[in-house]
Design brief:
The structure is a homodimer. By secondary structure, the first copy, chain A, is of the alpha+beta class. Chain A contains 7 helices and 9 strands; from the N terminus they run ββββαββαβαααββαα. The first copy, chain A, folds into 2 domains: 143 residues, Alpha-Beta Complex (Nucleoside Triphosphate Pyrophosphohydrolase); 62 residues, Arc Repressor Mutant, subunit A (Orthogonal Bundle), CATH 1.10.10. In chain A, β1 and β2 form a beta hairpin. The first copy, chain A, is elongated and about 65 Å long.
């Protein structure tokens, strides 16, 4: 058998979690490496692709083994294969990683597995990760922020129904900046992807806010002809 | 050594070529398979990734070995790894393909290598290709058509300087439909990515058309933080 780079699948798992003040922030799941190279450093969850396993199934398995959760949204990000991904390692141990990124609902993430070796980190406060994983996270963040603008991606963080304030909170957490509520409402209304359900949030308030939902006839963009074959997780819902 | 899927790199190579009436049309380079599976069928050029080879270098090598040319533009498209990519083959022979797409200038493509086993095909008139390569081509076409709208991608098919008619010809070939010259000129002027050089096409005409160039300060989009590390071919120019 000739020498060839090994193949792995890794997954960037995003969710929203409240910080100490209750403000929602973008977080991602990392695992501590228990083997060389980069032993003791944090890394994206991943591992070898099974010979009988589809790429997206391997990414879902990463996610499940790491957090005990199913993805609300899953998409292939990029294949990373630079020769210098693991400085100091033998070229014979070279690994090419096909990376997926996933969204997990903030309600579910609150109940995700955490341990000494699995933890959530704020996406904008990461230290040096193993391998080229900082570069991978940067690219995943860039893709997430770009797609949020023109798709119903925020749905991955929310339930089926949500208030405009909850939707704005998702945008603010992902984009990392505050948005003017009036402008946000006008943007959402002009966009047309979100429709009022006619219901209102249950609670004790005098005038509870309206509940909205995404218009399911509007597709997620950028899936092209692959949509049916690669977005199984999303379709199962 | 445990069983694991093999890794290959393939490349969709696009160019523009004149049809029998002289009209420019979008074409891609295919190679005839000389081995099973799919022996005798046409397929995208590709092969195993060298252990010392970057992914994009392998894609450039595919392109060079197939056509004798260098890419004007090269970008990773997607990693294809479905279990049913090669029906009838043993799962032990499973291959995951990381696919790139490339643009080759129409002037250069006219001098590209052609042989019994390497040929150009019209992108919109393909028969059944080997493996899942029709799906891959469909996705590459979708990506190309999407990117053309908002980037200086047409540059990959043109020289440094071009007339608006030449630029429109690229758009028409890629999008597969005629565009109104007046509307096209207004779209280009409003977009701002193309600037007049002040020069005119040399020739014998009474009023030769103006030459334009892309504003190089405007980046190709959708490269994200990977731009510097993955777009070497483009940067070398």
């Amino acid at each position: 058998m000739s020498e060839a780079p090994a193949l792995a699948v890794s997954t960037v798992i995003f969710t929203l979690r409240p910080d100490s003040t209750g403000c929602m922030k973008l977080a991602l799941a990392l695992v501590k490496r228990i083997r060389k190279p980069f032993q003791g450093q944090w890394a994206l969850p991943g591992g070898p692709l099974g010979v009988n396993e589809d790429l997206s199934d391997a990414a879902s398995r990463n996610l499940f083994e790491t957090t005990g959760l199913q993805p609300r949204y899953l998409e292939q990000l990029y294949a990373f294969g630079s020769l210098d991904r693991s400085p100091g390692s033998n070229i014979k141990d070279r690994v090419v990683s096909i990376v997926y990124w996933a969204l997990v609902g903030s309600d579910e993430a609150a109940e995700a597995i955490e341990s000494e070796n699995v933890s959530w980190f704020w996406a904008d406060e990461l230290d040096k990760l193993a391998f080229d994983h900082n570069l991978i996270v940067d690219y995943a963040l860039w893709r997430l922020r770009n797609k949020l603008e023109y798709s119903r991606l925020a749905h991955g963080f929310l339930g089926e129904r949500f208030t405009l304030a909850q939707l704005r909170e998702v945008y603010e957490a992902v984009l990392g900046r505050e948005l003017d509520p009036g402008n946000f409402r006008r943007m959402v209304e002009a966009n047309g992807a979100v429709v009022a359900t006619g219901e209102r949030l249950e609670g004790t308030r005098h005038r509870p806010p309206q509940l909205y939902r995404y218009d399911s006839s509007i597709d997620l963009t950028d899936q092209g002809p692959l949509r049916n074959s690669t977005n199984k997780q999303e379709k199962k819902k």
